[in-house]
Amino acid sequence: QYYGIWSSEKVKSRVAEVIFSWTVWFPQEVKIRDAYQMLKKQGIVKEDPKVPEDKILPPPSPRSHNSIFDTDEEKSKLLARLLRSRRSEDLQAANRLIQSTVREEQEKSAKASRRVNAINEVSENVKRMDELLENYKRQELSKSDQETLHTLFQRCEKLRPLLFRLASETADDDEALAEILQANDELVQVLGRHRQVVAGH
After folding, report:
1. How far apart are CA 129 and CA 170, in angstroms?
2. Which residues form the VHS domain (predicted)?
3. Directed axis angle between helix 30-41 and helix 2-25, to 10°?
């Protein structure tokens, strides 16, 4: 009996610390802030936890503009219901839901970052290859530039499978998928120009 009470209070305290940490790192997350304020109004949280700076949960990688809590109404309602509960298992479930949701956002942000980086690299490589190919056609390419052109060609060959993989990860985002397909078209074209120009000399 007493261990049950002790465990419940310990769980509540830890969940309060976790949610308080999220309000620090995610001030723009209205729903998390509101949920925390609701716990305070209900008397479940008496005061802000005294959490050492090194214990506050660290911030994730850059986030996408829209929160999963904003776009997933069912998940938002479930979180609110769990946080209103006084049962320790519900508070634990709320903690797990918050952590899994933030992990989803981190993964989504990481994928977006990989996509942007790959598309930018394609754009820069295509532009540089076109410049070198023009000089190659005029037979104005130095030995060093020829090596650079060959290196860029090899890198662009390796970027194509990366773009295919990114496209499969982005199948549910039409705009992002269109950007990837456009980058792939640019790659195909510059690789074709390279073969045509180099083979013709």
Report:
1. 27
2. 1-47
3. 140
Distance (Å, rounded) from C-alpha 130 to C-alpha 97?
A: 49
Tokens 């979180």 identify what position? Answer: 79
Domain boundaries in the chain?
A: 2-107, 111-199
CA distance 185 to 72: 34
Q: What is the pLDDT of residues 78-101, one digit of tens each?
A: 888 887 877 888 888 888 888 888
Q: How far apart are the first and last CA of the chain?
A: 87
Q: Where are the alpha helices (DSSP H) in the chain?
A: 2-25, 30-41, 68-71, 73-84, 88-137, 143-169, 174-199
Nearest to 9, CA basis, from 54, 44, 49, 57: 44
Q: At what angle do helices 30-41 and 73-84 cross, to 10 degrees?
A: 20
Q: How confident is the model over 129-169, as pLDDT tens digits?
A: 999 999 988 888 889 999 999 999 999 999 999 999 998 88
Reduced to 3 states, what is the DSSP secondary structure of residue 42? coil
DSSP 61: S
Residue 54: its pLDDT value, please?
43
